[in-house]
Amino acid sequence: MGTPILWGGFLAAMLVLVVVDLTAVRARGGVVSPRAAGFWVGVYVVLALAFAAFMYTRGGQKPAVTFLTAWVIEYALSVDNLFVFIVIFDFFQVKQNARHKLLYWGVLGAFALRGAMIGLGSALVLRFEWLLYGFGAVLLYTAYKLLKGGDDDTVDPEKNFLFRWAKRVLPMAEGDHGSAFFAIENGRLRATLLLLVLIVVETSDVLFAFDSIPAALGISQDAFIVFTANACAVMGLRSLFFVVSHLMDKFAYLKTALGIILAFIGVKLCAETAMQEYVQQHEALLIVISLSFVALTLLIAVVWSVVKPPPAARTP
Fold first, then answer.
1. Which of 142, 159, 226, 287 has the fewest CB atoms nearer than 10 Å to its CB?
2. Per-residue pLDDT tens for 14-31?
3. Is 158 helix (H, G, I), strand (E, B) or coil?
4. What is the 3-state secondary structure (H, E, C) of 205-225?
């Protein structure tokens, strides 16, 4: 349903938000407090809901609910991915005032990379519909890893292929250069460690997209809906990072919930691909069921984490 005007207007609005948010943080010295981060998380949630309302006025219930479902799933998966970003920043000892800048350049890179992947994925699905079974298999395998207890937090950033390649190829600056990606040393432009960390963040996001984009395509094959849902989730990702980094131990059952959700979407995607006539007859109902299942599963995981945390998560 995305016309050139809708695409252009959405991208322009996202860039304006990036500039406003970045300017506000720069005015505070580059440091984001949990309170300010929580405020911006709320702003992006409200904006996503407002965009869903706009989608409703343009196309009715179906695109609005589809967008909300994809956005909720992308946001939930982003929470899990944030733990890896925390590991990366701690591993490289990135200072607090540089983390915001890294995450914002990461957001801009994610727009470009995910946009290309979504466009390619949507085009391939339209041409080769059987690929949906492959997406379903990816989601079921990811769900299996999450439910089995696979921990993405154990990532070793120095094993990142592009990080090792860039470290060998790029002329590197010595010492601490604050939040700069490049520095002048002996009259030559050199890359700082922060640029290498950005490379690790960007390649990590690409790996995350191999899970999240099939999940969104499992809800809709409309490139505009999938991209806007991804973009709205990624925009809130930076602020959510500073909230989650202070609350990362509070929601012990989140990964289990994500595993259940991905398994549900994987089965749903395969079943709907096999029973297209039934789906067309009950499309609106199936979309509402998907959104309800995702929201209810996440709500139960959060409430259960607070009410009955596992022994290791309880405060003595």
1. 159
2. 888 877 876 776 666 656
3. helix
4. HHHHHHHHHHHHHCCCCCHHH
